Here is the input.
Amino acid sequence: MNQRLFFLLSAISLFLAPSASAFAQLGESSDDGVAVHRDLEFATSESKRLLLDVFTPASKPGEPRPLIVWVHGGAWRAGNKNNCPAVGFVAKGYVVASISYRLSQDAIYPAQIEDCKAAIRWLRAHADAYGIDPDRVGVWGASAGGHLAALLGTTGDVPELEQQHDHRDQSSRVQAVCNFFGPTDFLRMQQDSLPNGPIRHDSSDSPESKLIGGPVQEHPEKVALANPITYVTQDDPPFLIVHGDRDPLVPWQQSKYLYEALVQAQNPDASLHVIKGAGHGFGSNAEVSLLVENFFEKHLKSRSSTDQLVAQLEAPLPVPKHLRELFDRMEAANRRSQDVFRALTVKQMNFKPSDGTHTPRWNAEHMAGRQLLFFSQIYNAIDPSIPVVDRNPKQMPDVYEARHPDWSGADEARAMQRVDNFCRHYAHLLKDTRLNDRPPATSWPSLAALLLQMERHYDEHTANVKKKFELSDWPQE
Here is the structure.
């Protein structure tokens, strides 16, 4: 075997499964004081059992603990949940889980993120059994696992990725993300690779191409769906991103692109640490170990009032029974609108018809903005700690300024879903408000009238947008 081939195989094996020694500082811990719950089935897919391990204190703690979920690497085609490097965090006051997911030879993307989300939902559904605080869930992964951890962080409000497996009544959102050298934008991996890098990322047999089911440069739309940057929004959780500047397998710029997107979205708790001279792993690097420990300590153990409010939003209370039918109808109309907008490009969203009617973007912002304004006014009147949020755009097109002119229709659909989540979460405040009562702080004659109008509002504005598709100057892409 020549030296070049030996180096290539060695490097690829490192990409497939970063060794436990790459995390020695955090991974070395004995089983003393740790109860291990192995091979817990959280889902099945085509007769394949998906398993996870949970590590808890041997003695039951008095209070529920924050959870750190480890996502293994392996180029999405190898690796497993064994030898979890996060186990040492049990002694620091956490519960730890290590999860599995389908590999690319068994199923292409999005199977991997669907499985990871299912694992998070299962852990929340079984929080009481393992002493987990379901409102404080962090995720940590390396390489391919870092990519999936980043996706968990940015896709908490993407319902189309929640359609597989059970416990869909639980949230898959996480409250903190630690991403070690995870890929993000597959289209730029080859251009940023170190000279003589061992992997040809654009080739048909690269790990990235195998993940999406074809050469990455020939399938940019599939690459975009697998890119955590695609889903970045301002309300994403805190991110700690760590990458070596001599990584021969995943260029460090992949982490830079994600960090820049988070900063542009005004995420106040995103940080990038580029480790000089480090490759695909950090060994016993005390600096990196301290970064991770301090990150989870700050964002999972310390709970400000803002953190608690956000956590509440991720575990909505039931809608009062007497309101459920009309709430369901309003939400169904919201989802119908999402289905239409999700397919629209940025250009189509900003299309200004020659007849002087509104752009599709105005319709999207107006529908969600009006619902958010009315319900935040009502909830604020009952509980002043809930702010009134007015994002309803001006009525006249000539004075309209889009809040996010660079958002695609899918981005606007996710915003609609977030508004829906907000309305549903605080609906329990209306338990004493009857359908024929006037809702507080509004001029609506009754709560029923408001809910029915919101249903009509989504349907009418979405119908107006669909009419634009028939115009001769409607952009086709």
The chain is about 40% helix and 15% strand. The domain at 3-313 is CATH 3.40.50.1820 (Rossmann fold). Residues 360-382 form the longest helix (23 residues).
